[in-house]
Amino acid sequence: MGGLRERRQNELGRRTHAMRIAVALCLVLGLSAASLQVANAQGPISRCEPESIRVSSETQAQICIYVQDVVGLYGADFEMSFPGMLGVANVVDEDGGMPGVQIARSYAWVPSGWVVLTNVADNSIGYLHYLVYGWNPAPAIDGSGSVACMRFSPITPGTFSMTFTRHDLSDRDGFLLDNTAHTCSVTFVDPTAVTVSRFLARPAGRSMRVLWSTEQETDILGFNLYRADDATGEPLRLNDTLIPSKALGSPGGAQYQFADRSVDAGVVYHYWLDSIHIDGTTSRLGPESAATGIYLLDPSIQ
């Protein structure tokens, strides 16, 4: 009798242990699923690239509409509002052959088979509507990249914000993809912190040599150099680390040069120069354009 009771107690103990393991597994799987849901809840992001830009009021500012971390994108419909731009800058018309003001589409990430259905900028109210869609058999796209880019021509120093009032991303079946949108800002500053007296690019053998000289550098940490093979494209940063200022702590200027060796013969390249201030803000100069093997700039500049 005692043996039977002991066997029953052992069996009950094994069942209880198994139930505890099952409950623990359910809790673990539930936590994993919850974590996965939290990770997925972040979803794609509609933003500007860069999200904040600070440039001299003597040069243009370029901002691209950027989609980040998307899967199965087949259409994008954006409306942006920036009434604070009035009196500070104007959107540059990238297609003089069409009525109104249009921004530049980006081919670096969006396939050429996609069709731009709406491309309208209104400088009188600070407004943009850009709609692009991939008609069959154009492929859907994944990842991150620019959809279109716009340039602002300055009128006077000032700052304005750009808000996404529509940021609809859709899949191949027309269903919307949940996404969040970030606000952008553009600042044009009085060009007193750094005076660049020369900024040019010229071929040097199988590379391009980019040169710039400053007359004064006030609170400038250094420089970043960017390049694109399309004046309206998304620039690529060339230097791995900041090119340090040679005049930090002094009111004078200095001379700089950078050898760009990752170029192809006969291609026209466009260069931008960013001055990095000690407060973390940036002033941009450019673009300057040149082709490998062909001297396009003023030969009187030495």
Question: Can you walk through the features of this model?
Answer:
- The termini are far apart.
- The chain is mainly beta and 302 residues long.
- The chain has one helix at residues 2-41; strands spanning 45-49, 52-56, 61-73, 75-81, 89-91, 104-105, 114-122, 127-134, 141-154, 158-170, 176-177, 180-181, 184-189, 194-204, 207-217, 220-228, 236-237, 243-244, 255-260, 268-277, 282-291.
- The longest helix has 40 residues, at 2-41.
- The chain contains one helix and 21 strands.
- It has two domains: 45-189, Immunoglobulin-like (Sandwich); 194-291, Sandwich (Immunoglobulin-like).
- The strands form four sheets. Strands 2, 4, 7, 8, 10, 11 and 13 form a seven-stranded mixed sheet that branches.
- It is globular, with a radius of gyration of 27 Å.
